[in-house]
Design a protein that fits this description.
It holds the Pfam family DUF3447. This protein has about 625 residues and is mostly helical. Among the domains are: about 100 residues; about 110 residues, Alpha Horseshoe (Serine Threonine Protein Phosphatase 5, Tetratricopeptide repeat); about 55 residues, Alpha Horseshoe (Serine Threonine Protein Phosphatase 5, Tetratricopeptide repeat), CATH 1.25.40. The protein is built from 38 helices and 2 strands. The chain has a two-stranded antiparallel ribbon with strand order 1-2. It is extended and about 100 Å long.
Length: about 625
């Protein structure tokens, strides 16, 4: 496409970015010099350059070696974090021969492999290597797909001649490879559909996109051209937009909203110069500036701010740009906003400040920036959680230490009196507990309900923390009740963790302690059906005959729950099958019509009565009635 109609700054930026897609051994030095000049003159930004390199690494693997050389040689323009991002991307396809050098790369295809020969279009070596494996139909089909993707026409034709089968996958892969001869051979037998258009866009094949549109009436959107870095296609589509503020999707976005997602500030400037509204709200009440903050594009933000775009726009979710930037981890955006006077403690609809947003996303760099600009480290969200509490709950150790180093209050409480230490009770948060302990947090603190970290650990079934607390902090009493009627062993029985129950018993817990309703740990275990905990309690001497305030014992509870295994364990350990003034275990089994339980109880000596027969009869359990009658 001819870009003569564009201003010079726009033409120059597009020209250099498109050249990167064609980088090879012959032109790398020329492209490097042009990019360096473009970066120096701010024709393109470093974010724009790196974004393009990122895309090319995934969609042009045969150019990775040259992209890598380009990035390393221009590393003075960006920080180490950006270098790591590119390394990560490139290492998906290639590996360095020595740490952090780029002198030589090996592709992820092994030396002397069939894939390597296809990838490098070395037909002679390919034919020699595959001669002994032509009977492997699966291999031929797999290599055919790879030949399509690599654009290796000779290998492709050879595989077809040897019986490899074309499929819809080969059509898509041939689009990716961009070899027109392969494409036209494959299209005769395979389906050409929207997936082909999608891949033509993604793999930066503009001529194939136009061919698919003209010959197969396949469509694409202007937003897809931005996603795929196809500038010529972008401007072709742009000509069809009637108005600068025309909404181009169902979310009410204008083209300016979409361009704001990408590090193409030259496009953004061009569109604004054409009359696009910089403060247009989409259906989510987001402006282009908000979108730039959401996607972390500092050059777009600076451009929009220089044109007096509204900074404090509020989205439909009650977020300002600084909130979304903090949530998404964009420290550079936070820095720019704060330098322009944005309220660093502005709250979203959940009363979360940007600091809490950054903490919830585990973005330490954003946390540092916000605190640098005066963020309140003692703020509260709608759950009355402080930044420290949110950090502890999320097990974010680096952020916790940073807050502690900045003097955060370790003993700040929620309205019910819980401190940050309470949020270390989950099993995965033990290291967080140790960090707070190391910094002298109050381990024995109790909230308004009389609960402390020991009780919280019990409720969370945190064996490691419970053991640690009992061994290091003797003031934690395994027999001290919470709110006068709930003891630690009762809590452990409800949690049904056999190791925790054993741990408490080993530390002297009263095995027959009761709750406010007279239930013992054994009865609670019978209710929840944990036979391993039940057997442990019986082994340790729990009273199987104990009755609660309603006159029930563990056996009645187990029968009502219809847990046959628990019932059998209790009966085998001398539980009384005839307990109960009016409603015995057999009575309950009869009323439920549970034949297995009836047989089990009768086997262990339960005595049939008129009441049990009536219970079976009145509830329509004739089989139960006959079974009980046969034992009279």
């Amino acid at each position: 496409m001819d870009f003569d109609f564009l201003p010079e700054y726009c033409r120059d930026a597009i020209d250099i970015l498109q050249q990167i897609w064609q980088i090879d051994q012959q032109n790398i030095e020329d492209i490097k010099a042009k990019i360096k000049k473009s970066l120096d003159q701010k024709i393109i930004t470093i974010h724009c350059f790196l974004y393009t390199c990122d895309i090319i690494c995934f969609r042009r693997p045969h150019r990775i070696k040259f992209v890598a050389q380009l990035v390393i040689d221009l590393s003075q323009f960006f920080d180490f974090g950006s270098v790591n991002m590119i390394y990560t991307c490139m290492n998906f396809y290639a590996e360095f021969t020595s740490s952090n050098t780029h002198q030589e790369f090996y592709t992820f295809y092994p030396e002397d492999s069939l894939e390597r020969y296809i990838f490098e279009d070395d037909f002679d070596k390919f034919v020699i290597s595959i001669e002994q494996r032509l009977e492997d139909k699966y291999l031929l089909d797999s290599l055919l797909i790879f030949a399509c993707e690599s654009g290796s026409i000779q290998c492709f034709k050879y595989l077809i001649a040897k019986g490899a089968t074309l499929s819809n996958i080969t059509m898509i892969q041939s689009i990716k490879g961009g070899n027109y001869e392969i494409i036209h051979i494959v299209e005769r037998q395979c389906k050409v559909d929207e997936e082909c258009m999608k891949n033509a866009l993604i793999y930066h094949r503009p001529e194939i996109v136009r061919w698919l549109e003209q010959n197969y009436n396949l469509k694409y959107s202007i937003t897809e051209t931005l996603d795929s870095n196809n500038f010529d296609l972008f401007f072709e589509k742009l000509q069809n937009i009637q108005s600068a503020d025309e909404e181009i999707d169902n979310d009410g976005n204008t083209i300016l909203h979409y361009v704001s997602e990408f590090p193409f500030s030259f496009l953004l400037k061009y569109l604004i110069d054409q009359g696009n509204s910089i403060d247009f709200l989409n259906n989510f009440r987001k402006t282009p500036l908000f979108v730039s903050c959401e996607y972390g594009i500092p050059e777009n933000l600076e451009l929009l701010m220089s044109l007096d775009a509204k900074i404090n726009c509020l989205s439909i979710r009650g977020e300002e740009p600084i909130n979304i930037a903090a949530s998404n981890g964009h420290a550079s955006i936070i820095r720019i906003l704060c330098e322009h006077g944005v309220n660093v403690d502005t709250e979203n609809s959940k009363h979360e400040t940007p600091l809490i947003n950054a903490i919830n996303g585990n973005h330490l760099d954003c946390v540092k920036e916000l605190i640098k600009y005066g963020a309140n480290i003692e703020s509260h969200d709608e759950l009355c959680m402080t930044p420290l509490m949110n950090s502890v709950r999320g097990n974010k150790l680096q952020i916790i230490q940073y807050l502690i180093d900045r003097g955060v209050n370790l003993e700040a409480t929620t309205p019910k009196g819980s401190t940050a230490i309470f949020f270390t009770s989950l099993p995965q948060n033990f290291k967080t507990f140790l960090l707070l302990e190391k910094n002298n947090a109050d381990i024995y603190h109790k909230n308004e309900l009389g609960i402390d970290i020991f009780i919280m650990a019990l409720k969370a079934a945190n064996q490691e923390l419970i053991r640690y607390l009992l061994e290091k902090y003797p003031k934690f009493n395994v027999n001290e009740p919470v709110n006068s009627d709930i003891s630690p062993l009762i809590i452990a029985a409800k949690v049904c963790d056999v190791k925790i129950v054993e741990l408490l018993l080993d530390h002297g817990a009263n095995i027959d302690v009761t709750d406010g309703n007279g239930n013992t740990p054994l009865m609670l275990t019978a209710r929840f059906g944990r036979d391993d905990v039940l057997q442990l309690l019986i082994q340790k001497g729990a009273d199987v005959k104990h009755k609660n305030n309603s006159g029930e014992n563990a056996l009645i509870v187990a029968v009502i729950r219809q847990n046959e295994k628990v019932v059998e364990i209790l009966l085998s350990n001398k539980a009384d099958p005839n307990v109960g003034d009016e409603c015995s275990p057999l009575y309950h089994a009869a009323a439920m019509g549970s034949l297995n339980l009836i047989q089990l109880l009768l086997h262990f000596g339960a005595k049939p009565t008129e009441d049990t027969l009536v219970a079976a009869s009145m509830n329509g359990h004739s089989d139960a009635f006959q079974l009980i009658s046969s034992f009279q």
